[in-house]
Amino acid sequence: MRRYGKNPDEDDIPFRPNRKGNRPRTHIRPKHEDASDGMVLTVDRGRLTVLVDDRIIMAMKARELGRKAAVVGDQVALVGDLSGKKDTLARIVRIEPRTSVLRRTADDDDPYERVVVANADQLAIVTALADPEPRPRLIDRCIVAAFDGGLKPILVLTKSDLASADKILETYSTLDVPYVVTSREEFTDGAELARVHELLDGKITAFVGHSGVGKTTLVNALVPEERRRSTRHVNAVTGRGRHTTTSALALPLAGSGGWVVDTPGVRSFGLHHVDPSRVILAFPDLVPGTEGCPRACSHDEPDCALDAWVAEGHADPARLYSLRRLLATRDRHDGD
Questions:
Q1: Which of 192, 239, 252, 261 has the least CB density, counted as fewest CB within 10 Å?
Q2: How far apart, in whole angstroms, are the C-alpha atoms of residue 89 and residue 82?
Q3: pLDDT in tens, 9-32
Q4: Residue 219 gets which letter from DSSP?
Q5: Which of 288, 275, 295, 297 is nearest to 319 (CA)?
Q6: What is the H or E stretch that residue 9 is in?
Q7: Whether pTM exceeds 0.70
Q8: Which residues are within 8 A (CB) of 56 and not within 5 positions of it... i.e. 6 or more apart?
């Protein structure tokens, strides 16, 4: 039934006034072309510490971003008060596309993935050679997460004065992973610190490791106290001014354009989110051999074409073994 005439006039249509007097909603979002660029340094209870030029800015996510969250390392665009003065708050209106993402799940059965760091170039996996004993499966998982997220893995082996690094280095020799070995005595002399610094120079490097491996000691040595103080901006809402192990924190690397991202200690590193087809991209010598693989091949099954490819001499068998060892970590417990 037609409620109005065939050609209704505006006067024929009832008008409901806006009693609140506010502007009607619109789906057209502002472009914020005058927004300033910044880098997220840490996140604390919905408040983000952002570096804009040489100023530390406190910010919150704009409502228009919806459920999209910014994490440490994100390049963002901000509007509002960018003075960095006490009790000021800017708004993050845009999160730029990420070049890499380090993700993990609580365990292999957890479908909810957590983004730890964005836009990092490298993942420094800090492992003690003794006290506590090294956990090769956890190292494998971190390497897989790095390959999957587009980061270059680095091994940082600590406490070499307590045990030899030969066995660990032999295990990962076919992966061509850069490494540095440090000891508790020599590290304070500066020579070993210089070798670590050389690997990190000009890069954004996320540090990961479980409790007791010396990660905090290493980060403290790489980032002088005065630079840590300048970065740890007191949260205007919570009043918390020091970094805790509950969130990641980006710190400027001394004497370099690089950054160190200190992450909370991990007890497990779930890989529920990992796609094997992305991991193999870290093995460019094996990628051509996958052309004959069946669809959705796990690269560790009887019909995998990599076996024949390697048997024909196209690649080193040790490389295929390393790939399959890493992929198998998705089905093994971290503590193995």
A1: 239
A2: 8
A3: 555 555 566 666 666 665 556 677
A4: H
A5: 288
A6: none
A7: yes
A8: 41, 49, 50, 84, 230, 231, 233
